[in-house]
Amino acid sequence: MTVSPEISELSSASNSGVSTPLTAISSVLSLPAQIPSRVFSPLITHALDLPSLRSRPSTQELLTALFTYARSQGKNFGGAEEYIPAPAGFVDWATRVVGSGLEWIEDEDDRELIWDLASARIAERCGRTAAPSMEREFEVDGLDASIILYEPSLTADSLGLKTWGSSLLLANRFCKCHRGLIPPSGRRVLELGSGTGLVGIVLGILGYPVLLTDLSEILPNLKRNMEKNKDRLNGYLDVNIEELNWLDVESSEAYRRHDKFETIVLSDPIYSSEHPQMLANVVTQFLEYDNPQAQVMLQLPLRTKFADIRADLWHKLRDIGLSPTRQDQERGRDDFGEETYFWSVWRPREYIDIHIGIDSLP
To answer: CA-CA distance, 281 to 259, in Å (whole number)?
Structure first.
């Protein structure tokens, strides 16, 4: 049995974390539309009811089971949605599939697909850090269309390949009241540490020219997500993407152009004791200090273990001539649970009358 293009397409969707309608699976695998097969039944309570490898199940039987129990990541970090709960022992069964030679299945491509899907089903149940690459859907308040972002497998040294809760909250805030947050000058906004691109895409949709920046290893995925959402959102994106290494600012195109920005935005920018000073250096280089409307907008989670790093960041921003003028807290969540998030706006002190003391910041 050679894998059909339709099955390959379902495989890609299943491995990416996107929900696949059961009726679509039924059609491709030649099952009845009402899916009466026990494999699709949510009443299955144990893996013993799944195809036994001893009975040498067909490619169709194995693919049906593996597609059936694919887990969707849901929308907006809301958890898995619209999936059939796997029976007890499912991971053990999938592990046996991965370890089996499947010698009774003649087509090598079929065997590879079955192993890939079984591995993906296992990874989906091992937490976000072990999860496979996926496409995720984000609904942002006020936008007619969802934003689809691709996330490669998460690794500790590439945190920018993950969408974090701060990005979604900041994107929502912009959609709700962007006219009260960004001056109507038409000046380009600089986003530092753009990651998967959620905030920058939203700003582009809202009509703001934006320069999204991140490390070189993050840019291919960032460009992929920008391209993915151009057609979805009618091409209403006026954005550019460039490399900006906080440790080597002088190598950036923005530095060579002598760019200055009225508004700089960041979400979840600190997870190392070195980041506050690095961030302060970048802001000093690119913020248009002689503009009375100049501002830096931050959104970050109030993680307890980062309290000292946050305090250092507040002091570093003060040291470069900025003071907080607005602040807010709200609850949010991402793949790692619920958290309180802090939003603040910082402006050059010479242009503001009311100062918020940094000692009062969380």
So the answer is: 15
The rounded distance, in Å, linking the Cα atoms of 26 and 123 is: 24
Q: pLDDT for 135-184, tens place per residue? A: 888 989 888 888 999 988 765 556 668 888 999 999 999 999 998 999 98
Beta bridge partners of 344: 298, 327
Residue 104 to residues 57, 119, 165, 334, Cα–Cα distance (Å) = 9, 20, 46, 43
Rounded distance, CA 141 to CA 147, Å?
11
- Summarize the confidence of residues 350-361 as an average pLDDT: 86
251/4 Cα distance (integer angstroms): 48
- Scanning 100-137, the segments in alpha helix (DSSP H) are 108-124
User: What does the alpha-carbon distance between residue 190 and residue 211 come to, in Å, rounded to a whole number?
Assistant: 5
Q: What angle do CA 43, 45, 51 make, to 5 degrees?
A: 95
Residue-wise pLDDT for 12-61, tens only, equals 554 444 444 444 444 444 443 333 343 444 456 777 889 999 999 999 99
Q: Is the pTM of this model over 0.85?
A: no
Looking up tokens 């946050």 gives 310
